[in-house]
Design brief:
The protein is of the alpha+beta class. It contains five helices and 18 strands. 30% of the residues lie in helices and 25% in strands.
């Protein structure tokens, strides 16, 4: 009789536990079964998205890396491969947990998984914390920053190249202006891939150097394009002008001196390699009106569009000029003129009778 009584007591205790399991519901970590299921599905999709990104990054490293980048590219590839293997482990764990939760949903609350999980029957649900900690502990792809130097040229750490200096300075989501930053040589890709000098400091940075004219080496055509003497660092003091299809898309143009993009001023203006009819613009630095002009035949006295037009002297044709007022020719270069004199004015000072060693530069962003 005593054994029977003890046995019945155990039965009653077991029955009570089961009854509590069925009747008393509470949210596990304030979430319903459906919430947990959706969380797992979302995490699983995130892992698959990361895997896609990793495969893309690995492919980019293979296809875009230059010969000089191969050692770095191989190391980068192996790092992404290791991360990919970790995501496969996470994917396997998440898939397992999803199966458990779906079974639990049907077992305890039927097909309507909007009901809460019984508080005393959450053994399987405890697996929810496993993948969460695993997922956050794995180092997933970090944001992409800048690598390189003036010799090799800078680019994104996944070996992609921006289409302008401004895209490095103000990058899209997933990319950050960190790492090997600052003024210097960067790779860009417009119609082709080539190095440029980027002024990342002046007036917000992101300026791409597209024209450099030295008095000792003037280029008559403002659309010559890249040549074998192209040197964006200006160390060799060789002039260059990018042709139209190489110039990055832009909204602003700056008139500078050497490697400073906005020495004179900068404007909301789309630069072109052809003739530029007189246009009056407000300079953002001086907050004053300027006139810009260039024509293959016509020019203005003192290369100042506020003055009278002339056509008499061929050596003055094709002059690019930027003038603040009738009395100030702020920036002017006459490529048909021999030195001294090709560099006609800088910062309002006439330099046509002196030999200058710096470059008259044009920038865009």
């Amino acid at each position: 009789m005593k054994a029977t009584t003890q046995h019945c007591s155990l039965c009653f205790l077991l029955f009570t536990t089961v009854l509590l399991c069925i009747q008393h519901y509470s949210v596990v970590e304030t979430r319903t079964t459906r919430d947990l299921l959706n969380q797992k599905k979302s995490m699983l999709q995130n892992v698959k998205d990361v895997q896609t990104d990793l495969l893309t990054m690995m492919d980019v490293a293979k296809t875009l890396a230059l010969p000089s980048d191969q050692t770095m590219a191989n190391q980068y590839y192996q790092e992404q491969q290791s991360k990919l293997e970790k995501t496969k482990l996470i994917e396997k764990t998440l898939s397992f947990e999803l199966g458990l939760l779906e079974t639990k949903c049907k077992t305890f609350v039927g097909e309507n998984c909007n009901n809460a999980i019984p508080s005393n029957c959450t053994t399987e649900a405890s697996h929810a914390t496993i993948s969460s900690s695993l997922f956050t502990s794995v180092v997933l792809p970090s944001t992409i920053n800048i690598i390189g130097d003036n010799d090799a040229g800078r680019k994104w750490s996944n070996f992609e190249m921006a289409s302008s200096c401004d895209q490095y300075r103000n990058p899209k989501e997933g990319y950050v202006y960190e790492g090997a930053t600052g003024d210097g040589v960067y790779w860009i890709k417009t119609k082709t891939t080539f190095k440029v000098w980027c002024d990342m400091s002046s007036n917000g940075g992101g300026w791409t150097l597209i024209v450099a004219q030295f008095e000792t080496d003037p280029i008559g055509s403002w659309a010559q394009g890249l040549t074998s003497t192209y040197d964006p660092t200006l160390q060799t003091k060789k002039s260059f002008v990018l042709d139209q299809h190489l110039i990055p898309g832009h909204n602003y143009t700056g008139f500078g001196k050497d490697l400073q993009a906005t020495t004179v001023d900068y404007f909301k203006f789309t630069y072109t390699t052809g003739d530029i009819p007189v246009v009056e613009l407000v300079g953002f630095k001086a907050n004053a009106n300027y006139r810009i002009h260039r024509h293959s035949v016509n020019y203005y006295l003192a290369h100042n569009p506020y003055r009278a037009m002339d056509t008499a002297f061929t050596k003055f044709r094709n002059t690019l000029t930027c003038s603040k007022s009738y009395s100030e020719t702020s920036w002017a270069f006459s490529p048909y003129y021999s030195a001294p004199g090709a560099g006609y004015a800088m910062l309002g000072v006439f330099t046509d009778s002196t030999s200058e060693t710096y470059a008259w530069t044009v920038w865009v962003k």
